[in-house]
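Regression check, IPE case 274:
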Amino acid sequence: MKVKVTKEIEDMIEQTIKQLGLSPKLEAATLYTLKLPGKRLRPRFVMASARDFDVDENIAIKVACATEMMHAGSLIHDDLPAIDNDDYRRGQPSNHMIFGEDVAIMAGDLLFSVAGYICAESKNNDVIKAFTQTLIELVDGETRDIIMSKKGYEPSESEILQMYRGKTGALFAFSFSFGPMMAGLDPSSYKEAGYEFGTYFQIQDDILDVTATFEQIGKTPKKDIVENKATIVKIMGIDKAQKLAEDTRSMILSKINKGFLYDEIKEMLFSQIT
Ligand code: IPE
Ligand code: IPE
Ligand code: MG
Ligand code: MG
Ligand code: MG
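Current build output:
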């Protein structure tokens, strides 16, 4: 049976934002990126992890919303002219292209804060702390990316992989380990699997930047090259990057017990990511 991430989660995200009584422009900007079609991977993993450890579904749905909100906030900021300068996201103009840079910055800030607020409804200190730590790692990873993408900087493979663990891996690590954390179990192998999944996923994203079309990825192709982004593809080429992704992939599932999360991850790992 497939995990449920669907209308219920989409509706809760929308209701949560609408209840805040925001200025109309900030509400519109925030809902714009949230409602664009994304893969909703992080909430899917949260729901699957919750189901494997018998977590109350009402709590899991809230935390699933929180992960999608943090993710959307990171995408809005990531696309800004000062960062990746990308005009498209999820097949549509980026947030700042519609609402302006000033409001897009605020929408990202708002999403980070509302994500924390809704995650706190888990009433589980370990979960709340881990979620906060996730944003710290994500922001640090994005900053490492910014620094390594400056002209003249020659990043090493290990610096790039460390940056991937932060900017992409941390939120998957949280999503995978949500179930064990709620059950009071040691989440470390699930967490590590999440970091490895993030690394695999980011390498694939970097390869797709070079090989895919706008229709496939919904963002500007070859943008990493134009913007001199520090990627693993830039330093080792596509073939070696693909090999590294495959080596990483083989380690991920060995860290997860068979169940809903295992099946979700497996499906992702062996399907084309676009
Ligand atoms: C995009 O994430 C950012 C990266 C970590 C590469 P996704 O590829 O999950 O984006 P959406 O949510 O499907 O748009
Ligand atoms: C991941 O890196 C960005 C975030 C974690 C926000 P990218 O900059 O490669 O993501 P895309 O390609 O813009 O989605
Ligand atoms: Mg980026
Ligand atoms: Mg980007
Ligand atoms: Mg990318």
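Comparison notes: The chain has a mean pLDDT of 95. Residues 7-269 form a domain with the Farnesyl Diphosphate Synthase fold (CATH 1.10.600.10). No diff flagged against the previous build.
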